[in-house]
Write a structure and sequence with these properties.
Elements (H helix, E strand, L loop, with lengths): L1 H4 L1 H28 L1 E7 L14 E7 L18 E2 L14 E2 L17 E6 L16 E5 L18 E8 L18 E8 L1 H13 L3 E6 L3 H63 L1
Antiparallel strand pairs: 1-2, 3-4, 5-8, 6-7, 6-9, 7-8
């Protein structure tokens, strides 16, 4: 302790500590601050539930100091996944804010492959939608009172077995998802079904011209439900073949008429030529 009471020794010690800080500690701190890291940054804003596409992203180098360990560093780690929170242009993102699958409330929309369409029909009364008991995966029949102004209540052959993929409340949220169950069950406003184009056209006409009621046909394992859908598709295919056959018959009839007209014109032309030849022969005689 007496050694540190000596001003000379104390001064030398302070100088040594200063040199150590300047030439050892400070460079290490600066090196840590200036160290670069590659991260993924959004170049445009995107909403929760939206699919992440490559044109939304860019890889940039930034200072690595104080970056979260779980920050996403490669575009390949994000492309094709779905956001679980809103992001804005310039934001980087951590792994916990993306999901492999879309949010439950619109997951069904990402399974469309072009063969069928998702279409919503309005539930104008509580009874029309099975008193709010419908849920995704149900197979229903569409009942049309006064079917196409015929005065009869029928189940159209095209809409005997239809798959329900969502039941939506007026708020826009799906009324049959677990996410909203805690907030209280909302009454359905629309039912979204999976249909082929010819079915969607008929549904649109039925909704515009009258009421639509839905009756539950089956609820259970997906394998059994698929049997109902296959049976419905088979009916639609047969109806399409009949329509194509009728169109083909009309085409053949039209083609026959054209051929007959062409033959008649050819016969008239031949008669005229024959008459002119006879006149020419008479003159020569």
């Amino acid at each position: 302790m007496k050694l540190f009471k000596n001003r000379t020794v104390l001064g030398i010690f302070c100088i040594a500590v200063s040199l150590l800080i300047c030439f050892a500690v400070t460079p290490l701190v600066n090196a840590g601050l200036s160290k670069k890291a590659t991260i993924v940054r959004f170049v445009k804003s995107a909403k929760e539930g939206e699919e992440i596409r490559r044109n939304m992203l860019q890889e940039v180098e930034v200072g690595g100091y104080n970056l979260p360990e779980n920050v996403v560093r490669r575009i390949a780690e994000l492309e094709g996944k779905y956001l679980t929170a809103d992001v804005y242009a310039g934001d980087y993102i951590v792994a916990e804010k993306v999901s492999i699958e879309p949010a439950a409330e619109n997951k069904y929309l990402y399974s469309l492959n072009g063969e069928k369409q998702a279409m919503s029909i309005t539930i104008s009364s509580f009874a029309e939608g099975l008193s709010g008991k419908l849920k995704s995966g149900d197979i229903v029949s569409v009942i049309a009172p006064d079917y196409l102004e015929s005065g009869e209540t029928v189940i159209p052959a095209e809409l005997k077995f239809v798959e329900v993929i969502a039941v939506t409340a007026k708020s826009g949220y799906d009324a049959n998802t677990e996410e909203k169950a805690e907030e209280g069950k909302e009454l359905p406003s629309t039912v979204t079904v999976l249909v082929r184009p010819e079915q969607s056209r008929l549904l649109a006409r039925l909704e515009a011209e009258g009421e639509i009621h839905l009756s539950l046909v089956f609820r259970g394992e997906s394998g059994k439900a698929e049997e109902f859908i296959k049976a419905q598709d088979q009916v639609l295919d047969e109806m399409q073949e009949e329509t194509d056959g009728e169109d083909a018959d009309k085409g053949k009839t039209a083609q026959t008429s054209v051929s007959e007209n062409a033959l008649q014109e050819a016969e008239i032309s031949a008669d005229q030529d024959q008459k002119e030849d006879m006149k020419t022969a008479d003159r020569e005689e």
